[in-house]
Amino acid sequence: MSLEQVDNIVSKLIKESKPYAWVMGEFSQVEELKDFELDLEILELLGITFHLGKNNILSLKTRTNKIKEQIFCVVDIESTGGINSGKILEIGAVKIQNHKELERFESFVKVDEIPPNITELTGIELAMVKDSPNLIQVLEAFRLFLGDSIFVAHNVKFDYNFISKSLYECGFGILLNRRICTIDFAQCCIENSHYGLDALKEILKIESTHHRALNDALAAAEIFKYCLGKLPSHIKTTEELIHFTKTAKLKNKCYNKKHK
């Protein structure tokens, strides 16, 4: 997948606004988007939105969106295996804005088989999903639910890439949503030696059943909201928040190492 290519385009758009033609030209070079006739509406459906200014200049909406106004979608999936050989088994998600829950998404996906170790881990048996919608139906509904929200997950790379790859294979294009990892965010805001979901749930006294998609998404949402409450006061916009989650932990590590 062309995640790095998309990130390179977005990194330029974070720094400055660009002409409409430049934006469409850059995104049209992404292999997974070459079959799309790109315009602002299509890009929004794929997860990224712009403000259209004078002279057809486009600005990333997340550059100016205030954090309290931004909608975040906290996501978790269960799968039958890894991204290269497994299939999505369940998707759970919760949308939040200004610390308040807006709505939830939860669905099994019909699959032909579930490995015994996955059933042991998740408690999901084949009989539980036999009447569920297929992957195309679930992904279509999830994409509409997600919209242009910020995609948040615990170890976001796994969930984001898995869903993006599955969307592409089903003909829906890849994800372009901005994303935040709650592991990274927690490392910026919570002092601890372990940042797995169970460890953070214990620290923050979050009670939920582990290894079910919606429950894990709700737990990650509580971690996310806790960390939002710990943000430095100068972090105001969505892009400032994303930058903070990626860089503050590195600064903290360097500081701690220097002052040992």
UniProtKB/TrEMBL annotation:
This protein's record includes keyword Hydrolase: yes
Keyword match Isomerase: no
Entry-linked Pfam families: RNase_T
Single Gene Ontology MF annotation: exonuclease activity
Exonuclease domain mapped to chain residues: 71-233
Domain of life: Bacteria
Alphabetically ordered keywords of this record: Exonuclease, Hydrolase, Nuclease
Cited NCBIfam families: dnaq, PRK08517.1
Protein name: 3'-5' exonuclease
